[in-house]
Design a protein that fits this description.
- The chain is α+β, with helices and mostly antiparallel strands.
- A two-stranded antiparallel ribbon has the order 1-2.
- The protein is 43% helix and 20% strand.
- The chain has two domains: 57 residues, CBS-domain; 73 residues, Roll (CBS-domain), CATH 3.10.580.
- Keywords: CBS domain.
- This is XRE family transcriptional regulator.
- Pfam families: CBS.
Length: 131
């Protein structure tokens, strides 16, 4: 995950989503192992199976959700990644970064339209060059 800058991995079994492994679960495992090491020897982390570390009941999104619904779902459940599922089939995993980027792009577009509507609004490049 670290080598490829991947924040989450859907865990599949026989074509079905059975869990989600994110950096959060990995960090929690490492913290738990650190505490356990203080009390005595523990099996190496490499011997653990994903099944024992993953979130077995991830919150999921549907392809029909709009961005505001998706953002609310992620915030409410404190999730940075959500699998997008339809009829038991995984379509994608959406990240909080993806949602933030979509909101930013939408707001930027709306701002440009409003400034265009006003008509006399200074061009952003000209304003930036005077600061």
């Amino acid at each position: 995950m670290s080598d490829r800058d991947i924040g989450s991995l859907p865990v599949m079994s026989e074509g079905q989503l059975v869990g989600l492994l994110t950096f959060r679960e990995v960090i929690n495992l490492l913290a738990q192992r650190q505490r356990e090491l203080r009390r005595g020897p523990t099996p190496p982390v490499a011997e653990l199976q994903v099944l024992h570390v993953m979130n077995p009941e991830p919150v999921v999104a549907s392809p029909e959700m709009d961005v505001s619904e998706l953002r609310a779902l992620m915030v409410t459940h404190h999730q940075r990644y959500l699998p997008v599922m339809e009829n038991g089939r995984l379509h994608a995993v959406v990240s909080f970064h993806d949602v933030a980027k979509a909101v930013h792009e939408e707001q930027s577009f709306e701002n440009r339209m409003l400034k265009s509507y006003i008509g006399d609004w200074p061009v952003e490049e000209a304003v930036a060059s005077h600061t």
